[in-house]
Amino acid sequence: MPERNAEDSVSLIRGDIRQTAYLHYCRKILLINADMCIQHNSCLAHSLYD
């Protein structure tokens, strides 16, 4: 039995654990990309206003 958290329990009810793992993976990539965009934009803002 996989470890369950709030999101996994939803997917276990649907019977699609792989989809949950995929969503977690995509969310992690999106968070990393968002963080990189924020850092990149702040660098651009600094270079524009300096």
The number of domains is 1
- The succession of helices and strands, N to C, reads HH
Which stretches are low in confidence, meaning pLDDT under 50 for 5 or more residues running?
A: 8-13
General form: rod-shaped
Strand portion, in percent?
Answer: under 5%
Q: Count of helical segments?
A: 2
Biggest sheet features? none
Protein model, in words:
Helix content is 84%, strand content 0%. The chain contains two helices and no strands. With 50 residues, the protein is mainly α. It has one domain (6-49). The chain has helices spanning 6-14, 17-49.
Keywords:
50 residues; mainly alpha; 2 helices
Short description:
The protein has two helices and no strands. By secondary structure, it is mostly helical. Residues 8-13 have low confidence and may be disordered.
Question: Layout of SSEs?
Answer:
Blueprint: H1 6-14, H2 17-49
